[in-house]
């Protein structure tokens, strides 16, 4: 339960950060805060996945899903962490890295497609 609340807390700050970035026309500091917040959301999501795995040790399908989600999560966390110093170079670079992460999470998972077909 605490892992879920942890994720929800960081996610609840995203609208504030999004509005702040928009109001300040993508200034460096606001984009740094947005990228940091996106990283914290990713870390909280990973903690939630580990918590679910710990609570369901007998589920046979979950380790495969966790492995794929962890790989995707690690890639997205690396991109989000790279977006923090990239914002200091130019905020558009940081925005591009964050956009890549969001597009990556929008693509459907192959396991979901297999489940729907079978």
Question: What would you say this structure looks like, in words?
Answer:
There is one protein chain. With 118 residues, the chain is mostly helical. The chain has one domain. The protein is 86% helix and 0% strand. The chain is built from six helices and no strands. The protein has helices at 2-12, 14-23, 28-55, 62-89, 91-106, 110-117.
Give me some keywords for this one.
mainly alpha; elongated; 0% strand; 6 helices; 118 residues
Short description:
The protein is mainly alpha-helical and 118 residues long. Helices cover 86% and strands 0% of the residues. It is elongated and about 50 Å long.
Let me know the number of strands. 0
Q: Return the domain count.
A: 1
The first-to-last residue Cα distance is 32 Å
Q: Which regions are unreliable across 5 or more consecutive residues at pLDDT < 50? A: none
Q: Name the structural class.
A: mainly alpha
Overall morphology: elongated
Mean pLDDT: 88
Q: In angstroms, what is the radius of gyration?
A: 16 Å
How much beta, percentage-wise? under 5%
Instruction: Tell me the major beta sheet.
Output: none
Q: Enumerate how many helices there are, as a single number.
A: 6
Order of helices and strands: HHHHHH
Percent helix:
over 70%
């Amino acid at each position: 339960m605490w892992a879920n609340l942890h994720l929800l807390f960081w996610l609840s700050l995203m609208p504030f950060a999004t509005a702040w970035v928009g109001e300040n026309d993508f200034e460096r500091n606001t984009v740094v805060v947005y990228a940091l917040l996106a990283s914290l959301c990713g870390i909280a999501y990973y903690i939630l996945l580990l918590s679910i795995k710990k609570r369901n040790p007998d589920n046979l399908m979950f380790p495969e899903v966790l492995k794929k989600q962890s790989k995707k999560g690690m890639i997205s966390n690396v991109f989000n962490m790279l977006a923090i110093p990239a914002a200091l170079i130019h905020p558009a670079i940081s925005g591009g890295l964050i956009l890549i992460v969001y597009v990556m999470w929008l693509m459907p998972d192959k396991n979901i497609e297999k489940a729907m077909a079978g």
